[in-house]
């Protein structure tokens, strides 16, 4: 019910901005799945969507929404996605659903990032949720050793291969005191494809599902 309420709030938020040429950016995860379902009545009122995962793409196609290749779309006006954690500056940890690389790309191409989440995700400091890092398979142990040097406890996400054919390590046991700095530092390590800190490009609006209402928050 919470996810449905947040999804409905997102529909209300984006509706005035839709026209037949609009291409939406759509993220991944269970909250986004509710948002996609809530798009059903709007099919035909916008051009289509760029999806940040195969799972979301399949859901969109099932509703008759055209899934558009990012290379065919310019800047997207709106990106709607969830988060594993979001702080008060609207920096996020994402990647719980293994889609962080395409999510970060589509978010980067979008003018406005609307984050939809339940209140448990809203935290004072990021790091309670293990930080996902997508790595080239051959580099997994090397990157893990570098992560230990940075004070993390890396855990290989066994049996998961991302849409890009890469592997994931989840970084435990360290809070993120400076998300922007850490996002840059982790990106410097050879073998890292993407890390799940979304600080350089955070959210612009947060629709936060509480007990019996949805709060609309700006950073
Ligand atoms: O993996 C992701 O980044 C997802 O957006 C995730 O963070 C949110 O998934 P949820 O809506 O299922 O909690």
UniProtKB/TrEMBL annotation:
Short name of any one Pfam family annotated for the protein: Rib_5-P_isom_A
GO molecular function ontology, one term from the record: ribose-5-phosphate isomerase activity
Gene3D superfamilies associated with the record: 3.30.70.260, 3.40.50.1360
Catalytic machinery residues: 103
The keyword Isomerase is assigned to this record: yes
InterPro entries, sorted: NagB/RpiA_transferase-like, Ribose5P_isomerase_typA_subgr, Ribose5P_isomerase_type_A
Keywords in alphabetical order: Isomerase
EC number of this enzyme: 5.3.1.6
Catalysis: reaction(s): aldehydo-D-ribose 5-phosphate = D-ribulose 5-phosphate
List of residues binding substrate: 28-31, 81-84, 94-97, 121
Biochemical pathway: Carbohydrate degradation; pentose phosphate pathway; D-ribose 5-phosphate from D-ribulose 5-phosphate (non-oxidative stage): step 1/1
Family: Belongs to the ribose 5-phosphate isomerase family.
Physiological role: Catalyzes the reversible conversion of ribose-5-phosphate to ribulose 5-phosphate.
Assembly behavior: Homodimer.
Name used for this protein in its record: Ribose-5-phosphate isomerase A
Gene behind this protein: rpiA
């Amino acid at each position: 019910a919470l996810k449905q309420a947040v999804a409905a709030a997102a529909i209300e938020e984006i509706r005035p901005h839709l026209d037949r040429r609009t291409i939406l950016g759509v993220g991944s995860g269970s909250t986004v799945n509710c948002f996609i379902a809530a798009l059903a009545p709007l099919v035909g009122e916008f051009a289509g969507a760029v999806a940040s995962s195969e799972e979301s793409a399949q859901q969109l196609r099932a509703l008759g929404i055209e899934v558009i290749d990012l290379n065919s779309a310019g800047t997207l006006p709106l990106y709607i996605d969830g988060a594993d954690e979001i702080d008060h500056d609207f920096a996020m940890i994402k990647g719980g659903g293994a889609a962080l690389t395409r999510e970060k790309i589509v978010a980067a191409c979008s003018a406005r990032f609307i984050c939809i989440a339940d209140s448990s995700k809203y935290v004072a400091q990021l790091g309670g949720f293990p930080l996902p890092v997508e790595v080239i398979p051959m580099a997994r142990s090397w990157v893990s050793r570098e992560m230990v040097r940075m004070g993390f406890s890396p855990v290989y996400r066994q049996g998961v291969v991302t849409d890009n054919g890469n592997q994931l390590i989840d970084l435990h046991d360290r809070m993120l005191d400076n998300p922007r700095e850490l996002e840059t530092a982790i990106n410097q390590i050879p073998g890292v494809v993407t890390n799940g800190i979304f600080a350089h490009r955070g959210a612009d609006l947060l629709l936060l599902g509480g007990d019996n209402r949805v709060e609309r928050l700006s950073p």
